[in-house]
Design a protein that fits this description.
This protein folds into three domains: 181 residues, 3-Layer(aba) Sandwich (Peroxisomal Thiolase, Chain A, domain 1), CATH 3.40.47; 112 residues, no CATH class; 33 residues. With 361 residues, the protein is α+β, with helices and mostly antiparallel strands. The chain is globular and about 55 Å long. Helix content is 17%, strand content 29%. The chain starts with a strand and ends in a 6-residue tail after the last strand. Bound molecules: zinc ion (ZN). Zinc ion binds next to loops.
């Protein structure tokens, strides 16, 4: 079988009637899948993973999302395949020795929302499954029943019996999958960006003073063409590094915001985790930009944060979920892709902040 190098399972972050795992208002199958995939690709630790040469997707995504997945994940050289056949084809892919790294993504976003990502590599090494978090989805109510790839993967990700192995026999598919858990997920507590400047890009302590929230206005109408121009910045927090003057521009643009050079720019990934809150403002109902009317109707007031991601870069991010005034200056936050607002008949997506280290499951 293929060696599973990294795995992650992400539930919906809503808290509905079932108690856990429902979609939050700003989530859909696309955001769940991207969040799961980001956990295993871990751009802040590229040495630990192999860039996938193939991406396979099981499940239903919003229109156009399959084509946009590579951009959201920063693996634009790979065209994802939408797989038919459900759990049987998912199991077959896991069981086949693979010559190179592949990314298996499965999502079910109706009812019990969850997405799973498995990054696999060539066979021949010790098999293993690294799980993300210990709290599994209670929504998978019947161990031993695998009616979706997500449920099958979840079964494989369960803590192993004492001998350290777990076998899953699939009736009908004539397959036995074996996985061995390598250990609890670790590493979320720290982040580094090897491409950063020598002094590092972990922000230092922030002096608490008057918040500068002059940048919180998001404006209103955003033409689709303008939105799409900046997707690497909006979806992956990609800045532009100027080789001429050494400064960063964010959002990335065609000319350096410091020296104006248009020739020497290179992509510079800002860290997706571990930013420090420098300012907080609560947007109460009635004060929101009109594009957020939908969100306010669903969730009421929300917090907008000014977050230091790099010594040179601060970004404005909404805090996910409702419950305003829950963020404090100096706290660290991670970022996730979420739906922002509907415009021109489609959802616009961007990154929002979540408290750092929250629920790595
Ligand atoms: Zn420059």
């Amino acid at each position: 079988m293929a060696t599973v190098r990294a795995a992650a399972l992400v539930r919906g972050h809503g808290r509905g009637a079932s108690g856990a795992g429902d979609l939050a208002p700003d989530e859909d199958a696309f955001t769940l899948l991207v969040e799961a995939a980001e956990r295993v690709l871990r751009p802040e630790a590229p040495s630990e993973v192999t860039a996938p040469v193939s991406v396979s997707v099981w499940g239903a995504l919003p229109p156009g999302a399959l084509e946009e997945l590579p951009l959201a994940l920063g693996v634009t050289s790979v065209a994802p395949r939408l797989e038919a056949g459900g759990v049987a084809t998912f199991a077959e892919r896991l069981a086949e020795p693979q010559p190179a790294a592949q990314l298996l993504l499965a999502v079910e976003a109706s009812g019990s929302a969850a997405a799973v990502a498995l990054l696999t590599g060539p066979a021949g090494e010790e098999s293993g499954v690294e799980i993300s978090g210990a709290d599994g989805p209670e929504v998978f109510e019947a161990p031993g029943k695998w009616d979706s790839p997500v449920r099958l993967a979840w079964t494989l990700l369960q803590p192993p019996p004492p001998d350290g192995s777990r076998a899953v026999s699939l009736p009908g598919a004539r397959l036995v999958l074996r996985a061995r858990r390598l250990g609890p997920f670790a590493g979320e507590e720290s982040w580094t960006n090897p491409s950063a400047s020598p002094e590092g890009n972990v922000p230092g302590a922030v002096p608490v003073g008057e918040p500068d929230l002059s940048t919180v206005s998001e404006g209103a109408y955003l033409p689709a063409a303008t939105y799409r121009e900046n997707l690497p910045s909006r979806w992956r927090l990609e800045a532009a590094h100027c080789r001429k003057c050494g400064k960063l521009s964010f959002p990335a643009r065609s000319a350096c915001s410091s020296c104006g050079s248009m020739q020497e720019l290179e992509p510079f990934p800002l860290p997706l985790r571990g930013g420090i809150i420098e300012a907080v403002t609560t947007v109460r109902p009635g004060a929101q930009p009109s594009e957020f009317d939908f969100q306010v109707q669903r969730g009421g007031a929300y917090d907008v944060l000014l977050v230091r991601l790099h010594p040179e870069v601060r970004v404005t991010l909404q805090l996910t979920g409702s419950g305003a005034a829950s963020a404090r200056i100096g706290d660290r936050v991670d970022t996730v892709l979420r739906r922002l607002y509907p415009m021109e008949g489609a959802w616009r997506y961007g990154r929002k902040a979540v408290p750092s280290g929250r629920s790595p499951s």
